[in-house]
Task: inverse folding
């Protein structure tokens, strides 16, 4: 299953990984806004290069940023457009693979972001291309902000069950959880949403994808190789480590 197919398949349910999606939108938007305004030079125009259904995009747009958003999943883009309209937020959203980011957008932004562990969907051989595309979309004097799992502190062995919890969707109970099947240099993730209306047999929705657990040190090195300078890791400002770099030329 491609990354696009993975997110297309779970688009109707993806917000259920959060106990309260709107609260997470607000919380993440506020946290990212503080980092961007504190660390970036006169930020106004933001490109969310892996926007998904819009958790970070919507949070930043609600805080006054002019957000352009793209994602490899067309279904997620359609969902984002609906969610932005419902909140009366202006977001320019379109489908694009991050590895063709510059070819798709053909303009630069004050800040280019990729949040919530999106980049490790890419094989490490593809990450330098994606980061170079992000560099080309960052204006001179602008910044790149990436958040990923801190894989150095993750258990990456064996088979694992990682539950989100029990949610409600249109009067139905939905149980959300992940499974991880770990290998030496990657793991296969299954994302499950089990619907139960209390009467009929439950319905299970599952999508699968592969992740490549890259360390933040290695990713910082790749960002530097792509052209970013003053690349640093920030802890305690977001629910994942934040990697922040600048474009100076």
Result:
């Amino acid at each position: 299953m491609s990354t696009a197919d993975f997110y297309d398949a779970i688009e109707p349910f993806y917000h259920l990984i959060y106990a309260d999606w709107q609260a997470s939108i607000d919380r993440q938007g506020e946290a990212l806004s503080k980092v961007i305004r504190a660390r970036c030079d006169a930020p106004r125009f933001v490109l969310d290069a892996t926007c998904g259904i819009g958790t970070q995009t919507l949070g930043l747009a609600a805080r006054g940023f002019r957000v352009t958003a793209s994602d490899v999943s067309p279904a997620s883009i359609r969902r984002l457009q609906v969610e932005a309209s419902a909140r009366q937020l202006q977001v320019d959203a379109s489908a694009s693979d991050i590895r063709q980011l510059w070819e798709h957008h053909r303009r630069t932004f004050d800040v280019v972001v990729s949040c919530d562990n999106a980049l490790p969907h890419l094989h490490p051989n593809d990450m330098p291309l994606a980061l170079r595309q992000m560099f080309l979309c960052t204006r001179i004097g602008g910044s790149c902000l990436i958040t990923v799992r801190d894989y150095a502190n993750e258990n990456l062995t064996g088979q694992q069950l990682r539950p989100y919890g029990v949610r409600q969707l249109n009067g139905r109970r939905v149980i959300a959880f992940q499974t991880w099947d770990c290998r030496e240099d990657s793991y296969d993730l299954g994302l499950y949403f089990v619907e139960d209306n209390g009467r009929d047999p439950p319905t299970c929705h599952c999508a699968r994808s592969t992740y490549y657990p890259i360390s933040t040190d290695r990713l910082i090195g790749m960002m530097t190789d792509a052209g970013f300078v003053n690349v640093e890791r920030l802890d305690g400002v977001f629910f994942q480590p934040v990697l922040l770099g600048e474009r100076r030329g």
Summary: The two ends are 38 Å apart (CA to CA). The first strand starts at residue 45 and ends at 48.
